[in-house]
């Protein structure tokens, strides 16, 4: 008979022996752990509490939705009123400017937007004429437009150099007629030079 070694003894002994596992005890522990949860779920008071909380949350959510909708409506009304106010203010300002606008200058602006080249030339001629009238109304002395421009320069009126440039182009239009090429872009530029002087004089 061979002697039994320690290793053989360990190998022969099972690691897990179900004989010593009390299944009833295990299930009892599991049941004891689950019972409070089941009791809480099946308890009428629990569902009443959940129902009350749900109702409160629903009421709060409904209040937030209603409040948000009311605020959105108020903001829209305010924005609409603000926009209408700005539009009405702008329209009133335009009407006031239209009322105060120099009739001759208004006529010049109409000419400059015309599709006809002849109207652009007339716009420049009329601008030069209006500037001459404006200088004389302010007491400047001169028999020609050149004299008036020199006088205006000595008196420190703004934009006179631009008026000189515009007047030279006016002379080319007057003396060369249709032989002098003239575009609407150039016409607007020249009228703008006159406009700068008119604004400085308070004509427009």
Task: Please give a quick description of this structure.
This protein is 78% helix and 0% strand. By secondary structure, it is an all-alpha fold. Keywords: Membrane, Transmembrane, Transmembrane helix.
What's the structural blueprint in terms of helices and strands?
Layout: H1 6-12, H2 23-42, H3 44-100, H4 103-112, H5 117-137, H6 145-154, H7 160-176, H8 184-201
Helix pairs in contact: 4-5, 5-6, 5-7, 5-8, 6-7, 7-8
Description:
- It is a single chain.
- It contains 8 helices and no strands.
- It has 2 domains: 21-100; 103-201, Four Helix Bundle (Hemerythrin (Met), subunit A) (Up-down Bundle), CATH 1.20.120.
- With 204 residues, the chain is mainly α.
The CATH class of the largest domain turns out to be Mainly Alpha
Question: In one word, what is the shape?
Answer: rod-shaped
CATH architecture field of the largest domain: Up-down Bundle
Give the radius of gyration.
Answer: 49 Å
Number of domains: 2
Oligomer: single chain
Instruction: Look at the structure and give the mean pLDDT.
Output: 83
Kindly identify the CATH topology of the largest domain. Answer: Four Helix Bundle (Hemerythrin (Met), subunit A)
Strand content: under 5%
């Amino acid at each position: 008979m061979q002697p039994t070694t320690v290793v053989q003894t360990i190998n022969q002994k099972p690691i897990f022996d179900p004989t010593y596992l009390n299944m009833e005890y295990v299930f009892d522990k599991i049941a004891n752990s689950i019972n409070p949860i089941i009791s809480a779920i099946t308890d009428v008071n629990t569902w009443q509490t959940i129902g009350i909380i749900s109702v409160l949350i629903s009421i709060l959510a409904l209040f937030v939705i209603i409040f948000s909708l009311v605020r959105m409506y108020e903001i829209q009304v305010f924005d609409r009123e603000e926009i209408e106010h700005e539009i009405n203010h702008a329209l009133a300002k335009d009407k006031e400017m239209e009322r105060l606008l120099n009739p001759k200058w208004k006529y010049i602006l109409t000419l400059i937007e015309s599709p006809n080249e002849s109207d652009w030339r007339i716009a420049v001629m009329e601008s030069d004429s209006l500037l001459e009238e404006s200088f004389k109304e302010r007491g400047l002395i001169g028999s020609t437009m050149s004299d008036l421009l020199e006088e205006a320069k000595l008196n420190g009126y703004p934009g006179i150099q631009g008026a000189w440039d515009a007047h030279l182009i006016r002379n080319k239009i007057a003396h060369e007629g249709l032989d002098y090429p003239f575009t609407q872009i150039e016409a607007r530029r020249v009228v703008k030079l006159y406009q700068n002087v008119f604004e400085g004089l308070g004509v427009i």
